[in-house]
Amino acid sequence: MTSAGIIQRNRQLIFSAAIVAFALGISGCATTDKTTTGSISPVSAAAAPTGNFDQMNAQQLAQASTSLGARYQNNPKDRTTAMNFAAVLRMTGRNDQALAVMRSLAIAYPKDRDVLAAYGKALASSGEFEAALDAIRRAQTPEYPDWKLLSAEGAILDQLGKTGEARDIYKQAMDLHPNEASLLSNLGMSYVLSGELNTAETYMRKAVSAQGADSRVRQNLALVVGLQGRFAEAESIAKQELSPQQAETNVKYLRSMLAQQNSWNMLKDKKKPNS
Hints:
Layout: H1 3-9, H2 11-18, H3 20-23, H4 58-74, H5 79-91, H6 95-108, H7 113-125, H8 129-139, H9 147-159, H10 163-176, H11 181-193, H12 197-208, H13 215-227, H14 231-238, H15 244-259, H16 263-270
GO molecular function, one term: mannosyltransferase activity
Pfam families: TPR_16
Keywords: Repeat, Signal, TPR repeat
């Protein structure tokens, strides 16, 4: 099987890595530590804004889930609590529960742009891509388009196999927000999905040098390099600017991505000396 075939068989997993911009949140309240790539911020569960949970480790996520779950039960229509609770649920793999939370919130706030955007993300995480696309487009305002929503729309279109439309959307987003790492990364992942790994790598290398580049963008570059059989280089990229513990986490992530359907071994077997 070609690397393109492997990617197509693992489209959902790759999609999860690709939707970087949307993971950063819509409202702009998310904060990231720009000084240390991939660092885990000591953020409390109660105070963490939507989109910050990707900076937490497993223990912190579990604590946040318990705390936010209790607050949500007390007031399920509290907008911030519900959105944060859904975000944590997605981060811990409970996509169906996250979708239920966001569906209820969307009913309570049918015209709220941020709620619709988060609802679209929950739908996409649960594989309901057509419904997710509808929610994202309803959240968008054509007169004041949000580049993060456009990026999310592009990622969903990619998942639906509408590659040309997706890339047009990414370029619209880049017109609004040039040289943004997450947009370049999502566009690069679009080329990964179509098996065009050289082009994907070009965009990924631009992404890691662009504003907003973080550990996830480097992981995507490492993935693209690894899919081309350059494993030592891929692991070196995955370890950049991290503590030994964080570097090991990144390498485990990289290997898990490439191990799907035995892709790591299948590609490694094809990489022969002097080839």
